[in-house]
Amino acid sequence: MEHELLTIKNNAMSLIFDATDKRELEEIKLQFLGRSGELTKALKGLPKLSADEKPKIGVVANEVKNIIEDAIRQKGVELNKTKPVLQKIDVTEPGIKPEIGHLHPMSLTLFEMVDIFKKIGFQAADGPDIETDHYNFEVLNMHKNHPARDTQQSLYLDTRNSNINPGEILLRTHGSNMQGRIMEKISPPVRAIYPGKAFRYEQVDASHGFEFWQLEGLAVGENIKMTDLFGTMTYIVKEFFGQETEVKFVCHNFPFVEPGAEAYMTCTVCRGKGCSFCKNSGWVEILGCGMIHPNVLKAVGYDPEKVSGFAWGMGLSRMVTLRYQMDDLRLLTNPDIRILEQF
Ligand code: PHE
Questions:
Q1: How far is the CA of 179 from the centre of ligand 1 (A)?
Q2: Mean pLDDT by 10-residue block, N- to C-terminus, for the chain (343 residues)?
C-alpha cells in the first residue's frame, strides 16, 4: 500500500511539473484528487488494513495528499505569472536593411574614369599582364641596351624549361605595352584607353607597390597636337576631381614619346597649400605623357609624316588615394572590412 501511494505521488509530481497551462493543471487535479481520482481510490482501501498498519499508512497517505495539493497550488501561481504576453508589432517601423556588397573604391574610380573617357570618344580595351619584351619595350623605342630599361624594374618569367629565350617574357612594367598591340590592329584615327595592372620590382612602402593600376591611352590621327594632349588630360582631371582642380605639365623624358611631359594636379589633401602628402609642394604627380615618338609610329606601320598622336599613362591607384585622401597605397589591397565598409 505504501509503495502504491509513493508511485501515485511520483506520477502526480512529474505531470504537475510538466503542465503548461491551467486547464492541464485542473485535469491533473481531477486525475489524482477528484472523487474517482487515483489517490482518492487508494484511500478507500484504508479501512481494510490491519489495526497496526492503519495509522502508519494513514500518515503517509495524508502526506502524499498534502504534497500533491501544495504542488498544484504552487504550479497554479507560477502559471499565472507566466501568462503569455501579447507581442506588439509596430507595422510602421522601418525594416532592417539586409547588408549587400558594394564596389571596391578601385573599381568605383576605374568605372567612373572609363565613363568620362567614353564621353569624349575613347574606347576601352583590355590587355595581357604577361607580356613579351617586344611589346613592353622593343616597339616602344626601348631597344635591348636602352638605359631607360633600368628605370622599369622588371620581373621576368622563368623560361628555363621552355623554348623561349631568357628575358623574353615578363610581367608588364606599364600599360604602354598596349600601344603597339592597338596601333598594329587599328588604322588611324584611333582613340583608346587600356586600364590594367602593371608590375615592377619595387620596395613596397606607403606610396609604392610592386603591382599597381594604371590607366593608359592614346589618340592618333591627322593633325593631333600637344595642345590636344594638354586639353584632354586637363578635361579628364577636372571632370573627375572638380573644376577648381588645377593641372600643370612639366618636361620629362620617356623613350616612346617626343616631346614628353609629366602632369601634376593640385593636392586634394591640402588643396594646394602644402602638406606631408604632397611633400609641401601643393602638387601631386599623376601621369606621364607625350607625343608618340615617330619611331613607335613607324614600328606599328603608321606613317609619321601623315599622322601624329599622343599617349599617356595615369596612375589609377594614385587617383583613388587622391580622391579618398588615403595616405597609404597599401590600404587598397588590404581586405580589412573596417576600411572597405567606409566606401
Ligand atoms: N608608361 C609610362 C609609365 O608607366 C607612362 C607613359 C605612357 C608616359 C605614355 C608617356 C606616354 O611610367
A1: 10
A2: 87 90 89 88 84 85 90 88 75 88 92 97 97 96 86 89 92 97 97 96 84 96 98 98 96 97 93 86 95 98 98 94 87 85 83
Largest CA distance in the chain: 137
Check if 272 has its Cβ closer than 6 Å to any atom of ligand 1. no
Asked if 156 and 26 sit in the same domain, the reply is no
Domain-embedded: residue 208:
yes
Residue 47 C-alpha cell reads as 479501512
254 lines ligand 1 (CB under 6 A): yes
DSSP state of 312: E
User: 231 with 331: CB under 8 angstroms?
Assistant: no
Residues 141 and 235 in one domain: yes
Cite the beta strand spans of the chain per DSSP E.
123-124, 130-132, 155-156, 169-171, 190-199, 211-221, 247-251, 257-266, 283-292, 308-315
CA distances from 295 to 140, 168, 200, 256, 305 (A): 8, 21, 25, 8, 12
Distance 115 CA to ligand 1 centre (A): 21
Contact 139, 179 (CB under 8 A): yes
How far apart, in Å, are the Cα atoms of 333 and each of 172, 320, 330?
Answer: 19, 12, 6
**Ligand 1 mean position to 173 CA, how many Å?**
10
